[in-house]
Amino acid sequence: MNTYELLSSLKIKSIYGALPEEVHSIEQDSRKVKKESLFVCIRGFRSDGHSYYSQAIHNGATIIIAEEKLPIDLTKFALVIVKDTAKALAILANKFYHYPSNKMTVYGVTGTNGKTTVTTLIKQLLEKNNQQAALLGTNGIDLLNESVESDNTTCDVLTNQKILHRVAEHGMGHIVMEISSHGLAQGRQRGVNFDVVTFTNLSQDHLDYHKTMEQYGYTKGLLFAQLGNNLTEEKNVILNRDDPWYEIYNGMTPFEVISYGIYNEADFRATNITYYEDHTCFTLGSPEGNFPVTTKLIGEFNVYNVVAAIATVYSKTMISVKTLVRSLANIAHINGRMQKLDLEAPISIYIDYAHTPDAIEKVIASVQPFKQNRILLVVGTGGDRDESKRPIMAEKASVADFVILTINDSRYEDSNAILTDMEQGMKHNNYICIPNRKAAISLVIDKSEPGDIIIIAGKGLEKYQITEDKKHPHSDKEIAIRNCSIKYNLSV
Ligand SMILES: Nc1ncnc2c1ncn2[C@@H]1O[C@H](COP(=O)(O)OP(=O)(O)OP(=O)(O)O)[C@@H](O)[C@H]1O
Ligand SMILES: [Mg+2]
User: Fold this and answer.
1) How far is the CA of 111 from the centre of ligand 2 (A)?
2) CB 101 within 8 A of CB 172
């Protein structure tokens, strides 16, 4: 892109040195800089991009965007000083990639639990109706089935624009994005022009970062407030009517709210719910009337997720509720979220991703309607993350008949110390602490009896465990299948 055209998007700046005619790429990581790149020095949590300008120049950068003067050879390179490089990056990246989010319908989903589930459902509902959609979230980037793992649920500003640009180049009409509270607090979705944003629920998590529930809730609210005030645009907000934050988020946006829920009157409301071991049925009240719904997802929490996804897609497409309900019937479980293992065993095993107190409470409740014998729960938590939720997770876990407390990813923390924190919340003595996750899963299966339901919570289908900063291959599903096959003589 022409340099003058690109830089004209920044209103307040000082330019020093020799400006090249063209910019061929924008980078914030000096290792990724190529010939004729523009390098933006971002002050991050771990490092400051201002320390890497010389590496960027060495790798081919011709323009450096910084917040302070740097000793650059101005006869060969240009230095542009701005007040806030993070904001400048969002503006430049948008301009460079030709405002890609304006070329498609952009869906944002936020909330403590259910983001991956709801975003995946939205994508699948669109695809079942012949509309191509990309997905961005915890499981990485899924763009025309080209999937790339991502380190964070929400990508950085520059990566977002690069991905949106690729989605636009592929001519895809939709992108569905999972928006974490960390991403919102750090402005990682700056410059993404959302068309519809959806709220799942709010409960305790991430208080190591946000400190109070109020702060956490208001941070999530940024997504709704940032839809803006331009009422010539058709934007929508989809809110959970049964969550206490409904009224607050409703007040944060001038756009029309579409509500969904179970217990309160709502635009999309599920009633007459019946729970089965491998599916759920309910009646969906909607602006187009009542429809009988069958979904392969189980549990009340998934009724919320399913209804949220239908309301969201309905708000932005011409697809009728009747068609969406029909499409939903063909959508399988979401990987690693209350995923029942397909085994010919006298027990049922679910692999799940619950790692908050509310999610643990909800997954145990989801299997109660078809409990025959006991509910056995393996539940873990992670090191170097919100310590205050640990005893509350154990308290919620106590509803299960037998509990094994274990570790998801210890990171730099001592596993035994994590388990001691959790243990404080246990309400009965029918539990055991086993730091080694593989041993925990082996034991729960060994202790099982016909008719038992086992839930293995915390990691879903993740393929590794993290100790310190190392990733070790690990699969809850494989360990469970192997041990179950041995215990019950299955041929798999
Ligand atoms: N609507 C919901 N309410 C409460 N718990 C839920 C809900 N949906 C899912 N869960 C629980 O949370 C777990 C994680 O679900 P999901 O991956 O969809 O959430 P997420 O918000 O994407 O999580 P993360 O913040 O880790 O990305 C599920 O395995 C289930 O235990
Ligand atoms: Mg997620």
Assistant:
1) 10
2) no
